[in-house]
Here is the input.
Amino acid sequence: MGAVVKMRSWIRNLVLLGLVLSMIFSLIACTEETEVTGKTAAANDGQEILITGLQDSDYKITVGELKKLPVVTKKAQSTRANGETVKIKATGCLLEDVLQQKGKSVKDYSTIRFTARDAYSIAVPPDVLKNRDIILAYQIDNKVLDAENEPLRVVIPGERAMYWVRMLDRIDLETGAKQTAIKKVVFLETAVKALPQEDYQYFDSNDKAIKTKDLVETYAGGDKPKNIFIKAGDGLYKNETPANFLGAYIKISGQEAPKFLAPHLPQGMHVRDLLFINYGETSFLAYSQGQKVLSLQTLEGQSGIALSDLIKQTGLSRAAKYKFNSLNAESLELAVNELGSGLIYQNDQGTLVFACPGATDKSLENLLSMECMNP
Ligand SMILES: Nc1nc2c(c(=O)[nH]1)N[C@H]1C(S)=C(S)[C@@H](COP(=O)(O)O)O[C@H]1N2
Ligand SMILES: [Mo]
Here is the structure.
């Protein structure tokens, strides 16, 4: 009798041990499985996104809450600046549906700025807001987002991948991010001659750079714009926050110069081949790019940028009179009807010259700026 009890408890212990072991094994198997296939579907549900400009106070929404909104899935494809293709299938909700919950629409805003956990940030302009779907994706290619993408990735099918912000952290809804009227064009090549130039290590090259802060403090008066507009020679047009802009550099020599960059800004935010930077009422124009993409005209065998296109592209205001200033504070005033054949060119020494033939020939070396005169 005693032996049977003993034996039974022995068997019971063995069975228990077996159970425990199999539980441990299945647990291990489970963890192994999640490591192979990625995180569980709900892994990022508790993560929060901050939205400003939607309500009086900051508004926070979790990934889990976004999942309760209607689900959209769309394929999108775009080329990176380096020519590679980014191709993804995005599953998520529409930003429009998030705003609709609070009685707002994407179209109510002039700019929406997305900022990521790696400090990447980009402003989406009004024409994109009006015409495109903005997806807040919590799944890409049917998978939960990985560390490079979580908690959300913005995807705007049909637009370039620079808008597809990974690791989304906050959304700033802005109204009135409008470009103010330009009153003065400052020529970058001449302007940098009077600024401190630093060595800037750029991959294998030792280039020169100026601080954007020095540039605007020297030439843009006391302007404090809320947005800084940047245009590149290839047509890229974007705007930057004062915080991002004023902590950066313009590399003025070497590859892709002039180039907006900073060691602390993700490379996707760097802008190569700058055409102009509009900072408040001042437009900083790079002659080197202007010469490639603006209309040219020829004057007495010299080819240079035509003033009419320069005015049009930078948005320089109309005025009855314009004043041209040189680096050494010489100046020249011209009535608008005298400008027609005016030309800005680079002489053999690489110096910018303004020339305008008239009754009396007029020209100015080391051209620094062109400004509107008040009547
Ligand atoms: N958070 C974050 N998102 C980002 C970037 C970045 O640097 N950080 N780069 C952008 C740019 S410039 C491009 S072209 C695409 C590149 O997509 P990929 O990172 O999936 O290759 O991501 C965009 N989203
Ligand atoms: Mo990019």
